[in-house]
Design goal:
The protein has 238 residues and is of the alpha/beta class.
Length: 238
């Protein structure tokens, strides 16, 4: 496929995704005027040719009464749970005005990554402690949804960047995902586990292969948005 054909195909998929969203939520109104999506590069949408990521796709067609819902993509490339713990409250307060809005959190992939042969960037107990602190405080402010990490294509290892040589393993991500799910059940927050299904999903694996093997292509981001839309916890927000 030529680069132009690939962009055209991605645009067509995005338009189909947009139409699907409008059809499903036509006549419905959200409970919130704004949605704040905190995360890392998967939330940000690295390698998405349309610059939407999953938050941009998720937000298309959403209304509260006569107004569009404001969806803030607050993903930062490389962020760990520790980075998000340090910034989410200030960024939420800066956008809250008359209401906080719906808070979505997605992290863990970078916590489990190893730089230059070292240990995981945030070890599992500290990652769970960060999550407990983030989510406990967030739930006291507004409704919260938590989205689990996604897998990678391990053939990318070691991934060389200007900062480090990275080693990322699905078995490590699986440990974090399981611990997050257990924490979510304990504290009563809705958790959307993506990892296990996506690791066995030919469509998502193709999305990784067609991109840089860490981040998916456009279709992979569409998949994440689709899974969130099909989630009962998300549907309860209407």
């Amino acid at each position: 496929m030529t680069p132009l054909a690939a962009v055209t195909a991605a645009a067509n998929r995005s338009q189909a995704d947009y139409n699907h969203a409008n059809q499903r939520f036509s006549g419905q109104t959200m409970k919130f005027e704004r949605i704040l999506c905190f995360g890392d590069s998967i939330t940000l949408g690295c390698n998405d040719s349309l610059g939407l990521g999953w938050p941009g796709r998720l937000g298309r067609g959403l209304r509260r009464g006569e107004r569009d819902v404001a969806v803030y993509n607050l993903g930062i490339n490389g962020d760990t749970s520790g980075h998000i713990a340090a910034r989410w409250r200030d960024e939420t307060e800066a956008r809250s005005r008359d209401e906080t809005g719906l808070l979505l959190f997605a992290f863990g992939f970078n916590d489990a990554a190893r730089a230059d042969g070292g240990e995981c960037q945030v070890d599992l107990p500290d990652s769970v402690a960060n999550a407990r602190r983030i989510l406990g405080a967030a739930m006291a402010l507004s409704p919260v949804l938590w989205i689990g990490p996604t897998p990678l294509d391990e053939s990318v290892n070691p991934m060389q960047t200007e900062y480090a040589s990275w080693d990322m393993r699905n078995d490590e991500i699986a440990r974090y995902d399981a611990a997050y799910a257990a924490l979510a059940a304990e504290i009563g927050v809705d958790y959307l586990a993506l990892f296990a299904d996506f690791l066995q999903c030919p469509r998502y694996l193709a999305a990784l292969e067609n991109s840089d093997r860490v981040h998916p292509d456009d279709d992979g981001y569409a998949m994440i948005a689709e899974r969130i839309r099909d989630w009962p916890a998300w549907q309860d927000q209407f």
